[in-house]
Amino acid sequence: MQPLAGSLLQVGQTSYTTAATAISLRSIRLSPIISQLTSFLASAGYADAAVYRNLQDPLFVNGAWSAAPFTAPPGSILNGTLAANTTAVQTHVDCIKPTSFTMTNLTSSDFVSSATFSPSCNASLSLSRNDGFDQFSVTAASTCAPSYQDQNFRPVIFWYYHLSDNGDALGTAVFCQPSIAIFVVTTTMDLNDGSMGDCTILEPFEYTNNINVTGNPLNGEAFNGVVFDASNSSYIIARALANNSGIPGAIYSFASQQPDGPQSVFDDPYGFVNATKDIYTQYLSIAAQTIYFLPDNTTISAQLTSNVPRLFVETLPAHLLSALFICVGITSLIVHILHKRSRRNLWLTSPPSSIAAIVSLTSRSGFGDLLLPYDDVSRMKSNLAGLKFRLDKRTGAIVAEEDFGVVDSSDNMALLGRKGGYGVTVGVDSLSPLSRTSFKDKIEPESP
What we know:
The chain is elongated, with a radius of gyration of 48 Å. It is built from nine helices and 16 strands. By secondary structure, the protein is an alpha+beta fold. About 30% of the residues are buried. The protein is about 25% helix and about 30% strand. Helix 2 packs parallel to helix 3 and helix 3 (about 235-255) runs antiparallel to helix 5 (about 270-290). Strand 10 (about 155-165) and strand 11 form a beta hairpin.
């Protein structure tokens, strides 16, 4: 049966979901050491490495989403995904291109780039060709934000400059205004590598003054992550400068890696807008993991979806076998109908499917006396030679008749007590007593 089963059945993997629990590792809280800028520096380093090494988003970061990490309880399987409701921060950078952009020469080497994004939002940046053929920078958009707004939360403008091989100066600017929104979401974690799936919004996060991200002092504002307040610490100043140059540098590096270099990105009206939006979003989403979340340890409800082996029926062999069985069934039905008349006189008091039923059909037939338990096949053939067997139409018992075509014609002694048509049967009701009880009755010798 193994070849048949192998051709019809196959073991395959299928998803199976069960109720489970997860341990939430972080909750919404503002980091107390955010002013040290270490979180921003580490996030900028990852974003820069992602450009050079084509890295995927880190754990519990997916595009613009940064979710509170959670993990499966100890001892859980590693083949599947764990879905849970958690808190997530969604980052929007809202990057746009300028409505007008000009570069004005001041001297043979110095010039000014000017960009206008709206009638009340414009900026300019002084550059020098002596600083290189490729230049990039980021500044706070002071004219595009309220004067009272802190430097950390102001919108920013990214500047890009390139001197082409034919000596043409190319430049552009991108305006970005980061913002965050906090939601309760459903997301999944791959138990194999820890990667986070898509986030589905369930409801807005309930804002309270007790949470210092949505309440005082942050009040829901988003850090721009590239321009910071002044500091007296040389370490913090160095980290601020690294972030200020690292993110626009990563964006320009991405443009330089394109098949035609930065020239193709400058030629595309939305080339630097899209590049800035993608890399800047990834950077702020990674930073959100450490600046908007603090360690926590809470058990939450979850759903575990794992791949389990299941037995499947192969479609083609199963259909072929089903068609064969249908043909066999139809053929059997036709044979049953054609032989119905021949079977109507057959009397079987019990199904002949057991030893007792077979013995009951042959016990009074008499020819059993010709056989012994130790007879071999050749002896049984010899002892039963010259006999014909049939079913009695009245009782259903097996009866025997002597075939004189086989035995010696000079032998007038019938084995069954008479020639031809002799059988031994058993009555099956009280009105039909046993009429013949012996097999091979002896014939009395005639008187002299």
